[in-house]
Write a structure and sequence with these properties.
Blueprint lengths: L8 H13 L11 H10 L2 E3 L5 E3 L1 H20 L2
Antiparallel strand pairs: 1-2
Helix pairs in contact: 1-2, 1-3
């Protein structure tokens, strides 16, 4: 049974951008702030002492299962 909160498309995209940013993270004040704040409440991202958003271990796992998993299944159906 699926027991994780649903991630809107915009939040999945924000999570993907954050994972691509790596350890440096992404600054606050960008268009995806609402999604990053929501994912922070979910424990998928956190803000560093410098105020930049960085992905947590839970976020890395969610990205692998929900974002990259969707990409893999889309490409394997070709």
């Amino acid at each position: 049974m699926w027991n994780e909160p649903y991630l809107e498309t915009c939040c999945r995209s924000a999570l993907h951008r954050l994972c691509l940013a790596g350890e440096s993270g992404r600054p606050a004040g960008l268009a995806d702030d609402p999604c990053l704040a929501r994912m922070e409440r979910m424990g998928l991202v956190c803000q560093s002492a410098e105020g930049r958003f960085v992905v947590t271990e839970a976020g890395v796992e969610r990205h692998a299962s929900e974002v990259m998993g969707r990409c893999a299944s889309r490409h394997s159906s070709r």
